[in-house]
C-alpha cells in the first residue's frame, strides 16, 4: 500500500510563502510536471496565494488602525 504524502506545512512567513509560490510557478510554467503533480501544484499555489493575501489584509488593517481608519496616500 502506498504511503500518503503529508500535507505541506503552513509557511512561516509572508516572504517564505512568496518564495515557495514563485518557485512553484516556475516549475508549473516549465511544462515538465506530470499531470498529477501539476494539479497538486496548482492546489498548493492557491493555498499559498490565500496565505499571502491574508497576511497582506492583516497588515492593511493594522495600518488603518494606526492611521485612525483613514487610508492615506503612499509617499516615498
Low-confidence stretches: none
Order of helices and strands, N to C? HH
Q: Tell me, what's the shape? A: elongated
Name given to the CATH architecture of the domain at 14-66: Orthogonal Bundle
Kindly estimate the percentage of residues that lie in beta strands according to DSSP: under 5%
Rounded Rg: 17 Å
- Count every beta strand, where a strand is a DSSP E run of 2 or more residues: 0
Number of helices: 2
> Which class of secondary structure composition applies to the elements?
mainly alpha
* CATH classification class of the domain at 14-66: Mainly Alpha
Largest sheet: none
Span of the ends, CA to CA: 58 Å
Mean pLDDT: 85
Give the fraction of residues assigned to helices. Answer: 55-70%
CATH homologous superfamily identity of the domain at 14-66: Exonuclease VII, small subunit
CATH topology of the domain at 14-66: Helix Hairpins
Helix and strand layout, with pairings?
Elements: H1 14-29, H2 35-66
